[in-house]
What does this fold into?
Amino acid sequence: MLKWYLGVFTMEDIYELSIEKFDHDARGIGYINGIITFVNNTIPGDLVLVKLKKKKKKYFEADVLKFIKYSADRIKPVCPYFFSCGGCDLQYISYDKQLIYKENKVKEILLKFANINSDKINKILCLDFNQYNYRNKITLKVNKGIGLYAKNSYDLVCIDKCWIVSNEINNLIKTIKENVILDDIKQIIIRNSIYSNKLMVIFDGYNFDDNNFLKIGNIVDSIYVKNNLDYKLLYGSKFLEEKIGDYIFNISPDSFFQVNTYMCKELYDKIVEYGNFSLDDVVLDLYCGTGTIGIYISKYVKQVIGYEINRFAVNDAILNKQKNLVDNIDFYCGTSELFFENITIVPNVIIVDPPRSGLNEKTINGIVNVKPCKVIYVSCDPVTLARDLKILSSFYEVMEITPVDMFPNTKHVECCVVMNLKKD
Ligand SMILES: C[S@@+](CC[C@H](N)C(=O)[O-])C[C@H]1O[C@@H](n2cnc3c(N)ncnc32)[C@H](O)[C@@H]1O
It folds into this structure.
């Protein structure tokens, strides 16, 4: 005890810790003599004995040795792999508490890094029935077994099923385990269409025709083998088809598609609401993937231009435009910054939906030079969102932000933001 007062904290000593809150990675936070300490697998209200595993000047990381008292907010996770698997973070608190955690996380990050007040942030959008079995895609790692990586590591946790993916995907995992020889395979990607109830599977690490994979041909709609960036269709349909609202979309194996089909529609409806579009609007859909957002809003506007870096996704987008008989939209393969380098049409609304890394400097400069009257920013990482909003807020007023629970049971949260150009 005396050592603590002298400021000496050893890796051998055992410390008692009261967990006060979650951090933004869903780790429990307590304080050892005022020093912030992060503890995995704990929740606010837990009282624990811990041992330090990392000692930094300003913070510690610790592992639980023993629970003295469990928080009243704990529930039993439905998934037996929860405490080892890295797929989920929050299954041990109720769904209501998960939503509060995510709302607070967005509020704290946006206040801290972008000085955005919480009165701009709406209640999180969610669907009660959507807590489990919502994912339409899983990427399984293969290494003497099939599974997912453990939390913060590359150790494989072998699984028989996953509680957040669709039942169809789980049935296929079982069939693959029982029938397919997985020598040389590094990962297996399974995608499921909620609309057509069909499955696409991609065996990654192998690029040869092989009857071994065809053993599952009776339950999947398409089988691909993949080696590096090369996708070879071995069996069945080239695309999976998914439906959002009134539109049906082709999805190639390498194209991005929102993993939660149900919440995807909620998100796109929020974009339509925030857009408050008119038939004079010319909209730029940056990071457009398979063209979903652009096509979804196309009936409300004069023209849409979509930019996307992945050529497979752009090809899907062009087919999706034809498939849905939309004729006021054009898709281009290229980086978002390329649009601003070759600008021929000036959009008055820009929608951005970048990957977790957010917007790069050239894209932000491009937006503020073009000065659209409205920017809608869809983000899957509140930290990079806050970074970008801080810069954009010199030119744009953030009007509203809606968090969207696209990824129940995980720490992740999607956000949709609407910004208006400031008047000079
Ligand atoms: C979060 S996804 C959004 C896709 C689409 N808006 C949707 O809702 O399905 C981000 C997309 O950005 C694309 N991308 C990544 N970097 C890019 C860049 N520098 N320029 C354009 N697109 C990029 C990815 O290939 C991916 O399709």
Summary: DSSP finds ten helices and 22 strands in the chain. The pocket of S-adenosylmethionine is lined by residues 256-258, 287-289, 292-293, 307-310, 313, 335-336, 353-355 (CB under 6 Å). The chain has three domains: 2-69, 98-129+256-421, 137-192+199-236.
